[in-house]
Amino acid sequence: MTGLQRLFLEHVGLPCGRVWVSDDLAAVAVWTTPTSGEPDLDALGPRLRELAGDRAAAAAAAEEAMAPHRPTGPAWFLATVGVAPGRQGEGLGRAVLAPGLRAAAEEGHPAYLETSLESNVGFYQGLGFEVTAQVPLPDDGPVTWAMRKDPA
């Protein structure tokens, strides 16, 4: 997981997205935006497959299963968000997500995310997201929720 999070931060968020971190670096949110450009997925492919290991085929099948539920128009996509385990519950996740949600709304674009933790669904609903799909992933993958927040 650490390698995957680092990849999203270094090769997606920083070069072609937006990143917000808490002052103490205990929390981070990484977004792609309609104007941020696309990461070079061909270049990232080998590293993604390496990180997925023997689950690479399952990861590809999961991407295929989620694709129909993703926005087709311009949207802010939450690539990843994380809070240091010892700091969870302090509001840091909300704090690093807020600037991206504001920016998406100011631009008139929806925000979109996917989560495979049912416990996260209520957290995101509290931020104004609505579940748009609940997808059982193939190859014994988890149920994943597609969630969207339309601009106010």
UniProtKB/TrEMBL annotation:
Pfam families in the record, alphabetically?
Answer: Acetyltransf_1
Give the matching Gene3D superfamilies.
3.40.630.30
Which residues are in the N-acetyltransferase domain? 15-152
**Stored PANTHER family:** GNAT FAMILY ACETYLTRANSFERASE, N-ACETYLTRANSFERASE DOMAIN-CONTAINING PROTEIN
Tell me what this protein is called.
N-acetyltransferase domain-containing protein
- Species of origin reads Amycolatopsis tucumanensis
- What's the source species' lineage? Bacteria, Bacillati, Actinomycetota, Actinomycetes, Pseudonocardiales
